[in-house]
Specification:
The complex is a heterodimer of chains A (148) and B (531).
Chain A: H1 17-21, H2 24-28, H3 31-64, H4 66-69, E1 72-74, E2 77-78, H5 79-128
Antiparallel strand pairs in A: 1-2
Chain B: H1 9-33, H2 40-45, H3 52-63, H4 66-79, H5 81-108, H6 113-120, H7 125-159, H8 164-215, H9 220-230, H10 248-264, H11 269-275, H12 281-313, H13 315-321, H14 328-377, H15 384-408, H16 414-438, H17 444-463, H18 490-507, H19 515-527
The chains are: A mainly alpha (148), B mainly alpha (531).
């Protein structure tokens, strides 16, 4: 029987209570938070400029310097056509770099900050109210078998 | 228009039977999986325990419309290189989703885009929600009409130009299915049909592309050689400029189109809504990666199919059947696999446009019910049952609106309508998303200005472009008020949308949002709150 859990059983109100309770200056002034923001933003912008900007550049080149793009490379394959194929390769490489970057640079920082956030949150919760287990949300996918 | 029916009677009957079977099966599945409790989260987000592969398939299904399958393949068949660039744009647009939008939006979102913006601008969220709902409604209606008009165009491939009553019947039947799926099935129902469609699309396109390559002994050079020979334009078939060449304004027009595709596809409301459904950002990342691969594979396969259509059939056959080239996929299927493959691919095309229409209707309905009704009209005091009823009703209303508009505008070019929707998405929705996520100072006035300004600018430019008047294929060929030379407004309206967002923010002298709102938002966006 599949279950359809609502998004957050434990925190029905929209702004999460344990974030609300944390003074925002605490976590967002943290140097790790700044490097997390920098790591995510810088890579996202660079990779977007490379893949999307590269593609638009390719469109511009095709429109305005067709002589270069029409040079035969191999059989009927011209420079333009192979650059078009190259877009697919660039896309694959960018996606791979994105995953690697997120795994090595961004996720560990975010995980560390999150546990710090939960710590502060639960400490505050302990002083004000009995603990509610806000740090352990439901794991709806933790079933006995692996879905495809 | 079409001079003769492209495909014989037997495959029409086969298609009919196949399509009905698939629709009945998916409808049953959609109703079985439909929301069982009166919970809005289930209606908006569906089954949140789905695996990344299934989520990725559903994303791919939402993303690729019949315009990609039929329109782009036809464009490749008729214009070679230019058509291939168009397919490349469709693929690259998904990178915007992966790299910039997906994870931040998922971490800060709840049900609609309005929720993300409201988290960022809590004080003035109501006017911004209204503006977002207006833009989403405009985009969804345009794109929905494009899908429904596409169904008539598809019918034309079989029967020649259909009579008025056949046309009405076709649009009304497809529209009724859309309403059933969206209003009764909600997101779970939409997910079922998206996954089935995506599996069929990936398998069908790759299978046909493989067959084409097999026909040429897996030698791409032979395929290119043959395609350029039979294209009627020789080597220039494999060179840029066959469609968008010549004058500078033509070239700018193409750049404008590519801009709208690359930036607009990523901001279509049903694609954004789909991004919110995975249960945590890890699943989301894997899902989006699956979708990158699937979208890339389908676009690649569609390119091969287009080249194969020209190589095997020749340009004259394709063009004499349908001037726009939309028939090329079905003609190719008929050439390769006879009536069975034709019926399969036609059924796939119908299912594709049905599925995309369902996704759009659902996105617009959720925006109306959640942003407009629950948060603005009832000021957040609506019960879940109430909001759910409104969502179902607005799904029906949007569906009926789409049907009526499609009946009025049945002669419109599907691609033109779709491109206008992309341009609006890129110039109204995208600036707001980007600024909301990445600009600390962004204010409600900036959001309002960029949303309404981007919408107005793209609609007005399109109204005064050769699409509406002066050109032979336009709505009013006799009148001439087309002072804007390009068919696609994107190259002007997208910068205008971003500029207005910046201007509105800089000039905003009203009460500022609390700085803590932005910090809260940023913590949520980077560190996350779920999983």
């Amino acid at each position: 029987m599949p279950e359809y859990p609502p998004r957050r059983d434990d925190t029905p109100t929209f702004p999460l209570p344990h974030i609300e309770q944390t003074p925002p200056s605490r976590i967002s002034d943290h140097p790790e938070f700044h490097s997390l923001r920098r790591a995510q933003r810088r890579f996202g912008i660079r990779a977007t400029v490379l893949s999307v900007g590269g593609f638009l550049l390719y469109v511009l080149l095709s429109s305005f310097v067709p002589a270069v793009m029409n040079q035969p490379l191999f059989g009927r394959l011209t420079v333009g056509l192979s650059l078009g194929l190259g877009q697919f390769v660039i896309m694959g490489v960018t996606a791979w770099c994105y995953v690697r970057h997120m795994r090595t640079r961004v996720d560990p920082l975010a995980r560390g900050l999150k546990s710090r956030l939960h710590e502060t949150g639960s400490r505050r919760a302990r002083t004000t109210a009995p603990p509610q287990g806000a740090g352990q949300p439901l794991r709806p996918g933790a079933r006995g078998f692996r879905t495809w | 228009m079409v001079s003769a029916a492209a495909i014989d009677d037997s495959s029409l009957q086969l298609t009919f039977v196949l399509f009905l079977t698939v629709v009945v099966i998916t409808l049953f599945m959609a109703l079985l999986t439909a929301p069982q409790r009166d919970e809005i989260s289930e209606f908006y987000l569906g089954n949140r325990a789905m695996s990344p592969l299934r989520n990725g398939l559903a994303m791919c299904g939402d993303y690729l419309s019949a315009a990609t399958l039929l329109g782009s393949t036809g464009l490749v068949a008729l214009t070679g290189y230019d058509g291939l660039m168009y397919l490349g744009g469709t693929t690259v647009a998904w990178m915007m989703v992966l790299l910039l939008i997906a994870e931040p939006l998922h971490r800060t979102g709840r049900f609609t885009l309005g929720d993300t913006v409201a988290l960022r601008l809590p004080r003035q969220q109501r006017p911004v929600r209204v503006a977002l709902a207006v833009c989403i409604l405009a985009i969804a209606t345009l794109y929905l009409v494009a899908q429904l008009v596409g169904s008539v165009a598809l019918l034309t491939q079989f029967t020649g130009v259909p009579s008025g009553s056949t046309r009405t019947l076709c649009v009304v039947v497809i529209g009724a299915f859309v309403i059933l799926y969206a209003s009764l099935g909600g997101m779970p129902g939409a997910t079922v049909i998206q996954i089935i469609k995506a599996v069929m699309l990936v398998v069908g396109v790759l299978f046909t592309a493989g067959w084409v390559l097999h026909h040429f002994d897996w030698n791409p050079n032979a395929l290119l050689e043959r395609a350029s020979q039979r294209s009627g334009s020789g080597l220039s078939f494999l060179e840029p400029g066959l469609r968008y060449g010549g004058t500078v304004s033509n070239k700018l027009d193409f750049l404008s189109l590519e801009l709208a595709i690359v930036l607009g596809l990523a901001a279509l409301p049903h694609v954004l809504m789909r991004l919110l459904t995975p249960r945590n950002s890890g699943v989301l990342r894997s899902s989006v990666l699956w979708a990158v691969g699937l979208v890339g594979a389908v676009c690649f396969g569609a390119g091969i199919m287009g080249l194969g259509a020209t190589a095997l059939l020749g340009r004259e056959t394709i063009e004499s059947t349908d001037r726009t080239g939309n028939a090329s996929v079905l003609l190719l299927a008929h050439e390769l696999g006879g009536s069975v493959l034709t019926a399969l691919l036609t059924c796939l095309a119908y299912l594709t446009l049905l599925a995309v229409a369902v996704g759009l209707t659902l996105a617009a309905a959720s925006s109306l019910a959640h942003d407009l009704y629950s948060e603005v009209i009832r000021k957040g005091r609506a019960t879940e049952t109430e909001e759910l009823t409104v969502a179902r009703l607005s799904g029906a209303v949007i569906g009926v609106l789409g049907i009526l508009l499609a009946l009025v505008a049945w002669g419109a070019n599907t691609a033109t309508l779709a491109f206008l929707a992309f341009a609006i998405a890129a110039s109204a929705i995208l600036p707001t998303i980007i600024y909301t996520l990445f600009w600390r100072r962004f204010s409600a006035k900036g959001a309002l200005l960029s949303l309404y300004g981007g919408l107005l600018c793209s609609v007005l430019l399109a109204a005064f472009s050769p699409v509406v008047s002066s050109a032979p294929g336009s709505f009013y060929p006799e009148a001439d008020f087309a002072w804007f030379p390009l068919q696609n407004p994107g190259i002007v309206s997208i910068p205008v949308g971003f500029l207005l967002g910046w201007l509105g923010t800089v000039l905003d002298k009203g009460p500022a949002e609390e700085p803590s709102a932005h910090e809260k938002f940023e913590v949520r966006m980077l560190v996350g709150a779920d999983d």
